[in-house]
Amino acid sequence: MAAAQIAGTDNKKACPMPLPHIALAVLIAAIWGFNFVVIRIGLDSFPPFLFNGLRFAVAALPLLLFFRHPGVKWRWVIGTGLVLGVAKFSLLFLGMAHGMPAGLASVVMQAQALFSVAFAALLLSERPGMVQWIGLGIAAAGLVVIGSDLGVNTPLLAFLMLIAAAACWGFANILTRRAAAKRPLAFMVWVSAVPPLPMLGLSWAFEGEAAITQAIAGLDAKGILAVLYIGLLSTTACFAAWSFLLRQYKASLVAPFTLLVPVFGLASAALVLDEMPSTPELAGSALILLGLMVNAGLLTRWRQNPVVA
Q1: Which of 23, 58, 61, 81 has the most other CB atoms within 10 Å of its CB?
Q2: Of 125, 186, 138, which Cα lies nearest the Cα of 286?
Q3: Backbone phi, psi, residue 13, to 5°
Q4: Using CA atoms, how far apart are residues 136 and 114, in angstroms rounded to an integer?
Q5: In the chain, where does DSSP find H-type helix?
Q6: Ramachandran bin of 69, using left for φ above 0, alpha for ψ from -120 to 50, beta for the remaining angles
Q7: Cα separation of 132 and 230, whole Å?
Q8: How far apart are CA 232 and CA 291, in angstroms?
């Protein structure tokens, strides 16, 4: 989902998107939202580090033959691969393995917006406006509300791992912007090629040969489908489709569709995993979504151009 942070250029369309492209954007958000349910299912078949390495191997290997070069300097590829692929997703998988509910994880990961703005201010000298600060404050309040309700069902360690994962995602967004890849799909394919070997090494060191052997020997259809879903569908196919939309339209028109990801995440987790968030968790989730909408300028834009029924 890091593609959502790629800025649009001035020659892209600012006109309303046609219905098929709107449907495509909603479908991508739905796939990304359901991704958290699939991660939860996949963790029943694989230890976290091994699972993360396999998903990136599946995402990268089939397409490396078609993209011989990422089109940017290798330091951006390696840096993004380590921060996004190794650090961010390892922390996400570990947090969920340690008890973070899938639906709530889809919401907490949206804290990446707070870290993206903070890192942009520190590293790119981009100063957020007052509306952005208000939005980020509302989203931060939502995280505090969720954090205040942590207990047996959502351990503090798992919550902190998700916050750290969101911070890594925010920093990876800055690396992606600095890379300024003209071929974002090629860039993402090569970024996906970075994590598999480090993840295999981490799995061997921390999860052990016995856990790896057991996972491979006990591989079943659910585990295979989980890897294929996250690797090929959620990563490769959705990134290609998202890049297509960003080539056609301004990022300000496309990026707000990512607000649907936690909506689909919460709904799919409730339907598939019977996860029922507590009242504070729902209230905190609502505050995070509201804060992201304010930060993206959606409420201001609506007030200036109200929809007439």
Answers
A1: 81
A2: 138
A3: -70, 135
A4: 6
A5: 19-42, 48-60, 74-80, 89-97, 102-108, 112-123, 130-148, 156-179, 184-192, 196-202, 208-217, 221-228, 238-248, 251-254, 260-273, 279-295, 298-304
A6: beta
A7: 32
A8: 31
First to last CA, the chain: 32
Phi-psi map region of 46: left, alpha, beta (phi>0 left; psi -120 to 50 alpha): beta
Q: How many residues does this entry show for the chain?
A: 309
Contact 212, 219 (CB under 8 A): no
pTM for the predicted model, two decimal places: 0.87
Question: Which residue type, as a one-letter code, is found at position 106?
Answer: S
In the block, which residue shows the tokens 């599946």? 58
Structure tokens at 19: 């219905």
Q: For the segment 119-167, what is each residue's pLDDT rounded down to a tens digit? A: 988 888 888 788 888 888 898 898 888 888 776 567 889 999 999 999 9
Distance CA 296, CA 178 (A): 21
Residue 296's identity, in one-letter code, is A
Residue 308, CB-side half-sphere exposure with 13 Å CA sphere:
2
If one counts every other C-beta atom within 10 angstroms of the C-beta of residue 101, the result is 24
